Amino acid sequence: MSAEHLADDLGHGAAHVWWGTVGGPLEPGAVAVLSLAERERVYAMTAEAGLHYAGAHVAVRCILARYLGTDPALVRLGRLRCPECAGDDHGAPCVVWPPTHLSYSLSRSGPHWLLGVTGGRRRIGIDIEEVSPLDLDAVAPTVLSARELDGLRRQPDHDGRLAAFLRYWTRKEAVVKASGVGLMTDLCAVDVHDAPPGQPLVVRHAAVTGPGAWVVEDIAIGPGRHAAVAREAAAAGPLRLFGLTEMLETRSTPWPSATSSLSTI
């Protein structure tokens, strides 16, 4: 899909999901598109963490600039206020300039990043997690509902339990990011128990303001990673997945409409 048609493709509740991996040093001058605050954060990190952060944020700025028709360095990013506490440090991210109806959500895990974009000021949340060692006995009871814990216990081995946990976790993070409250909420109350295989589900979660129901879908982006996207249930249209091959080239695969088959929980 050409850059000129990206924004036009976001009508009727559609959303785009971009994903990529920071595989090596950035091109000379790439960091120049980052804001001063982003560059300061990069310089405060270790070399590897700084590279992963910078690579993801450079890609995000370049992608958003294509939708917005402007230079990546001119895009100003900020955050909305949390609908629960009105704090401005953990609300949903937003484009401050240029004026736009676009909404986006970014997630990073190691060198991997995931970006969700939608239009019409609709809300979107996204999360990606790499598979890594985790003390499930200690962590799971603090963030999973009773049904999710039961689903975890039904798995035949540790690998199955870890996969189930990460599936639950990415779904939960996607929902609370979309609602704008982030992790400043009781995750045990955000029930994302399994839908039928390969199908989206509707999750009930309401902040003080905004929608109370979200369409949640798992995203398959290769072994060793789990990911999910959440969108307003009342306005969820088709998804399109973009794998970033180069900064100016994409390949895309259309997904079925999220509204074609929903499991409500």
Order of helices and strands: EHHEEEEEHHHEEEEEE
The CA-CA distance between the termini, in Å, is 35 Å
Number of helical elements: 5
Radius of gyration based on Cα positions: 18 Å
Average pLDDT score: 84
Oligomer: single chain
Give the strand line-up of the largest sheet: 4-5-1-10-11
* Largest sheet properties: 5 strands, mixed
What's the overall geometry? globular
What proportion of the residues is helical, as a percent range? 25-40%
Structural class, by secondary structure, is: alpha+beta
Indicate the low-confidence ranges by residue numbers.
246-265
| Extended strand count | 12
* Residue share in β-strands: 25-35%
Explain how this protein is built.
It is a single chain. This protein has helices at 36-44, 47-68, 136-143, 146-153, 158-179, and strands at residues 15-21, 76-79, 93-97, 103-109, 112-118, 124-130, 201-204, 213-218, 225-232, 238-246, 249-257, 263-264. With 265 residues, the chain is α+β, with helices and mostly antiparallel strands. The strands form 3 sheets. It has a 5-stranded mixed sheet with strand order 4-5-1-10-11, with helices on one face. β7 and β8 (213-218) form a beta hairpin. The two termini are 35 Å apart. Residues 246-265 have low confidence and may be disordered.
